[in-house]
Input
Amino acid sequence: MIQRKQTLWLLAAFALSAICLCLPLASYEPKGMGVASVIYNLGVTDGEGVLHFSSWPLFAMLSLSSLLAFIAIFLFKNRKLQMKLCMAGTVLNMAWYVYMGIVYFSVLQTAGAFRIKFALCLPLVALIFLVLARKAIKSDEDLVRSMDRIR
Output
């Protein structure tokens, strides 16, 4: 199971998504006087740690994507379901970026200077790993089907 390259891709996607859940995504400083706020997957907090805006869909989408990648690791005998879970994780990661854009353009664009943190790119890398895992699973499935034809 662990020797398959798609398992390594899925494990890396799971780890990156889980790490991104814990780290700050971005920060912004108000135009006037005020304390800089930090954006997490669960919401936007100010300097004192008070939650100003809840963005729980970011957390939900990334958590579900991470969970799907972890579950897909153990479904190595059911390659079709594994491919579907990879595709669902890919769609969830894309939806995460769409919602992050909505949060930025609706709430944070008028707030001031926006600074991106390192964790904002982790779901993109996880998305790439999920696509690579799906491609490897598809090639395994094609190989098995070709062997069935030979018999």
